[in-house]
Amino acid sequence: MDKDIISEARKYAKQNNVSLSLKVEKYLEKITNDYQDYPRPSDSIVDQLSGIIKLDKDADYKKIYADIVSEKYK
């Protein structure tokens, strides 16, 4: 950690009559609680849709995509 930031944090804690370790603990508690409110990456739409289309392992994906785009813009 940056020594200047630690020094300023100690001054802040002393001026406000609070424990620096308690302030750090409360900050970490807040960010971890806030993080828990967000959907997990496994809840993403990409994860939900991954694997629903089964193609042969030898499939030419570039050709398949080109065919789809070509058909779309006829």
Topology:
Elements: H1 3-15, H2 20-36, H3 45-49, H4 61-72
Distance between the termini: 59 Å
Question: Which percent band covers the strand fraction?
Answer: under 5%
Counting H and I runs of at least 4 residues, what is the number of helices?
Answer: 4
> SS-based structural class?
mainly alpha
| DSSP helix fraction | 55-70%
- How many E strands? 0
Q: Rg from C-alpha positions?
A: 26 Å
**What characterizes the major β-sheet?**
none
Write a structural description.
- By secondary structure, the chain is mainly alpha-helical.
- It has one domain.
- It contains four helices and no strands.
- The chain is rod-shaped and about 70 Å long.
Give a quick rundown of the structure:
With 74 residues, the chain is mostly helical. The protein has four helices and no strands.
Properties at a glance:
mainly alpha; 74 residues; rod-shaped
